[in-house]
Queue: 2 jobs
Job 1
Amino acid sequence: MKQSFLFTKTRRDAPTDEVSRNAKLLIRGGFIHKEMAGVYSYLPLGLRVLNKVVGIIREEMNALGGQEVYLSALQDREVWEKTGRWDERAVDSWFKTELKNGAEAGLAFTHEEPITAMMRGHISSYKDLPKYPYQFQVKFRNETRARSGLIRGREFLMKDLYSFSRNETEHQAFYEKIKQAYHTIFARIGLGEKTVLTFASGGSFSKYSHEFQTLCAAGEDTIHLCDKCRIAVNSEIISEHTACPQCGNEKLTQEKAVEVGNIFTLGTKFSDALNLKYRNEVGKETSVFMGSYGIGPGRAMGVAVELFADEKGIVWPKSIAPFAVHLISLASSTKVKKEADALYEKLQKEDIEVLYDDRDARAGEKFADADLIGIPLRAVVSDKTPVGKVEIKARLTVVGQERTSDSARIISHAELLKMVSGK
Amino acid sequence: MKQSFLFTKTRRDAPTDEVSRNAKLLIRGGFIHKEMAGVYSYLPLGLRVLNKVVGIIREEMNALGGQEVYLSALQDREVWEKTGRWDERAVDSWFKTELKNGAEAGLAFTHEEPITAMMRGHISSYKDLPKYPYQFQVKFRNETRARSGLIRGREFLMKDLYSFSRNETEHQAFYEKIKQAYHTIFARIGLGEKTVLTFASGGSFSKYSHEFQTLCAAGEDTIHLCDKCRIAVNSEIISEHTACPQCGNEKLTQEKAVEVGNIFTLGTKFSDALNLKYRNEVGKETSVFMGSYGIGPGRAMGVAVELFADEKGIVWPKSIAPFAVHLISLASSTKVKKEADALYEKLQKEDIEVLYDDRDARAGEKFADADLIGIPLRAVVSDKTPVGKVEIKARLTVVGQERTSDSARIISHAELLKMVSGK
């Protein structure tokens, strides 16, 4: 994409009421726009990043046998009354609204109730199980405070998968598989090394549930980390479980973290309340055994900004960067400009995602924007680069917990193509 | 996809409170689930169709220079007060809700106000224009009645593009281009021959706006069609404009129709109210000239069902069918079953979208389901089909306004592959 075509502009300052680092940088870079506290719109660059995160999650959910659906935001009061969660004393984060006939409707903050009710039409026998519907869907939560940018939204995209199994054994096998899939997802997104499995309170059907917490100074959660196992206990249950649940280590260290995912054994709580039953192998009516599994793609994007940004701007992990290459033309002559144009066309032709800064602007402005936007690889064509060559420089690269920045070097167009196409 | 894997079941009867043909068939086929009147969830088959429609629209919007964004549903009262549209006497279809601090928020029924406000951060000079952001986003409209299935929803997906131009001339050129793009889109979706450009009331900045109306008995609109030009006048303005605006023909025929798209010249109504200005070529502050352009992908899907379904079920146009082929195994022996499996694998390998009915069910049930689901091509492997061959039969095919149904015939696997891959 040509930068002269992109409608968004970078800006020097974030809105004064914005306190979180991720929102400040994402707004300055033109990735998102703040509509109100905790409510953001995605602009072209931001939507590209969000779609990359979504794409990675989708692949992993499909690989597990997930089937994508899209449930409504508007919710029928009746369904939620069956589990007691319509009541605002039980759930204090509802946004509610009113139909023309005066009936109340809610905006989904999660989807256990409607999906359980919906599955009644599709599950009747043990042969229909297990099943794993999932969706990417906007949730609404009436948060009292929303000052963490994409990390805590009043309206935010969520991937939620629900598992419907015959029994606890079948459920548990899937629960372990999704645990692994979540590790894979966070590794692919670039958050793997900072993200730890965290034990949280269970419920009637399991001792624990699990969160995936990314260690991050901007986190609103506190977790208690076992340095040996790299697993943690959340603050909710630390008073009861003061040691590492895996190795028994009692030296846990407190860390700030962001909950980027959670997995939960629901058991038959929802299927009992909403009458989701199946006939088992001997014809006996049995409640379906359920689980739920969430990831916030926008939140993961916000955390990536918090973790990897430097004083100059955002540094995207390769897998979720809006573009693979930021091609910058500093041409003062038509000849050099043509050379940059030709390289852009070549990259486009090879399906390489390239943002091409073809604007009529100063070199300093272009470099500052490139640093702010944070595309992993910068490629410059200028009066100084020899014909057929380009000067490349990596944006800070995250290697383990160290960061290295390649110094600039000159390579041929062919080498650049090879480098970014991975061929 | 194997049908044994698909979690949805077809059903003999639609919910008794469902009156529209499209909702009845889509629910029976397992494409959608009714949450409440005018509020539907998309199940895997339905989401596949919806995504096909979205994909076609996206391609055409990108070809016009559109840039995809995703704006929030939750709306800030303040922005809407500037245009007077917060007031429920001006807009009676708001869903409103309340933040924890008592402030009111709305759920977007459209996005002119927030996108105009947002663009203030990105437009300042004539060099920044024209620009065409668009989105696929869920709209909320508090309809009094919602009995037409996907044709009139309280919550529904919409593609809305907004044009920001320097002046009326530049706007008008784009307006004509999008008119053509809409014809292309409806043709590609399979609604082209039934969809007519319809003149509607304009506003302060243009004599007319335009609707794209699909002739359909289930339509809630009445249009006045000129048979010569195949353009129409909507009932809103027919009293003032009794003749065809193109050829002057006064013999217009009344037809029921569904509004599947609309395009509108907004002029400077929103940019004036929300202070979206740019400096023109001579440095003068000028209001941006705007237009808005909507299509409801779910509504288009509902109309396709209304138009093409027969007494046996849905008949999808090829371009938006959930799968290209419905492969049905009627094998009674392991040998034939293996043959069907092998053909399925072969189709999958060629990236052909195939729904494979591998279920343990009677032939009659499988055929009835195939007719209900409406995939354009049915391919049967049975004890009767010779080795390496398959029996194919087209679901009713829409040719012009006539429908033809190929009778079944036997072809080789290679021929089938060639037929569906289009190679």
Note: The longest strand of chain A covers residues 252-267.
Job 2
Amino acid sequence: MNQQDLVRELAEKSATKIVMVVADGLGGLPLDPGGRTELETANTPHLDSLVRRGTCGSSIPVLPGITPGSGPGHLGLFGYDPLEFKIGRGALEATGIGFELGPHDVAARGNFCTLDSAGLISDRRAGRIPSEESFAVVEKLQGVRIEGVEVFVKPVKEHRFVVVFRGPGLDGAVADTDPQATGVAPLDPQAVTPAAARTATVAQEFVRQAREILKTEPKANGMVLRGFAGKPRLPTYEELYRLRAAAIAVYPMYKGLARLVGMTLVGHAQTLDQQIDELAKCWNDYDFFFLHFKYTDSTGEDGAFEQKVKRIEELDRAIPRIESLQPDVLIVTGDHSTPSLLKSHSWHPVPTLLSAPTCRPDGLEKFSERECLRGGLGMFPAKHLMLLAMAHALRFGKYGA
Amino acid sequence: MNQQDLVRELAEKSATKIVMVVADGLGGLPLDPGGRTELETANTPHLDSLVRRGTCGSSIPVLPGITPGSGPGHLGLFGYDPLEFKIGRGALEATGIGFELGPHDVAARGNFCTLDSAGLISDRRAGRIPSEESFAVVEKLQGVRIEGVEVFVKPVKEHRFVVVFRGPGLDGAVADTDPQATGVAPLDPQAVTPAAARTATVAQEFVRQAREILKTEPKANGMVLRGFAGKPRLPTYEELYRLRAAAIAVYPMYKGLARLVGMTLVGHAQTLDQQIDELAKCWNDYDFFFLHFKYTDSTGEDGAFEQKVKRIEELDRAIPRIESLQPDVLIVTGDHSTPSLLKSHSWHPVPTLLSAPTCRPDGLEKFSERECLRGGLGMFPAKHLMLLAMAHALRFGKYGA
């Protein structure tokens, strides 16, 4: 029996409430060998107090040594094996700009490129045209009309955009049209499986009309399409856990990921304080609350050790307000580590705390990577965290008699 | 997605270098309850220094409680699930004597036995004839000729030998001919699947000619064949990890195992110092170096606790020379435990250290079974070690966006 089937079998309704705070990229590294990580440097009295009443551990997002992107990182925390459930590149890009994919959609990532007079690619990124220029070009592409299909073209950044085809019988199994080289023409969209034949035809027609529309553009007179993908089929929080789930996030990517598992997006908060205002406001309407805090990741990506420390302390100061709502289970974790030292996501385990009246004391005093190694949750795959959340919320029946 | 596919997708080329020192049978047990293991008794200042800069853990070769042979033990360390990738007995025996199996080979283990005048087995081990006698008998068997097939017969030890059939269309699915009893005749080689029909016929012909050749032998006038197996199909280090891998081992078994995953055998070292000479010599030609140290296992097998301690100290003294080459990732582990107390391989987790600039400090001070329990790698399946090696060598891309 896989985890999803097990969860479906055991999940029960209850009045308990679970809050999962995801501090993106929470885990870190010391700048000097043997030194302290960002979390170990931060002054976190409220998180430490939760640790003393809770149980801690180290979460492995995918597998030891594997560095996840935001998609697999969050799928794991939401209880979906990130090696089993995958979000195609096009679908993730659409999700990342807040485009809500429907069940009949196929999304692809687009790159504008420059074609020479013979139709061959002379610049694979159209001179990296600035976003404003690119957005104007994207606007022109709204003129594409394809019979029986709705077409959405949305800007991303610089030469990048997303195209979404919506209509019955579409399928993501279409090959990239990017030849990954200059001096050659973009490839024609080709179906990889028979089921995608119609999608390939639609994409071909899109490219044909787009070429006509773009032919007078100085730089962005061509395009390549990559990562065709439909909306991933993920069972929802309601189906799996029987939880009414709310997502309180600032950035489109995380809102999108939450939507993919059936969470409801709540509010339009721009700051952590506003996020907690929203949490309080919708407290009675949901059972599960995903609260996403971005800045532990972005400061890590910037290599800004001290700023990441400050962001962790900002999160710590918000904890009492969350606690005042008296959640039955309060989890603080991350979707992966983003050590300032590496200026990127990393594979290192993520310090994780779970606080609930049913926690068995593990003797820890402080929320830190080092302490979490000795915690009661041990080293565990991220996909197991929701099982623990459900258990401590007393929302699981017994398995077997 | 399985581990192999994941690795193939994420592996990137890099200039970084990984050294994996396998101290065979490294893990141990105290002689007296509550006492110290061999590793805990040894004076290991250099390993301890690596521990302080690195991250440690306990490697589980197959599953908790499962004692591996050398084959599964090493496959795990090399990143192949030993329950999924299996090396047939015949193939392992051939590998162990340094016979390099080709893709069209089928190998079997042979035992000489004594047959009575009625052709029934009177001694299943031919009186355990000494190796020298046995080798002479093996020599006579070189006279066997079978149309369309090359036949290799190689001595192993005492009554044991290996036979390898080489030719197109051979298959390992042939049943053992050992009736596991005296007073009965050896079985005729029989195909277990239709694909092995020709192999069974070849084996029957081999047995027929061998009986004729051996009929005047006083003891070894018969034989049984067991463990028919082809070369296991293992993706190579180059295919999987994009690593140019070198193996520096003294004993044929470990050379053979390394060859099976596509490592290049380097040098003809007979001592640890010579092995490190070879390591230094080929440093620029490879990315990954498997260095096998046998004597922590053989002393354990002998029940020689003090000797095992001394061998661990010998390994410790070699560490600075390895470090002077400045590997990006230096791993010290074992393929299994061999406690002197048990005089055999065991199932106990194997103390493992990984040292790299990207290690998160775990606060350990000494390389020992007890300390490793509290290490940052936790308790992990051996097959995940290569994932960590690749990650710390910065040779993996990100999984998902």
Note: The longest strand of chain A covers residues 105-115.
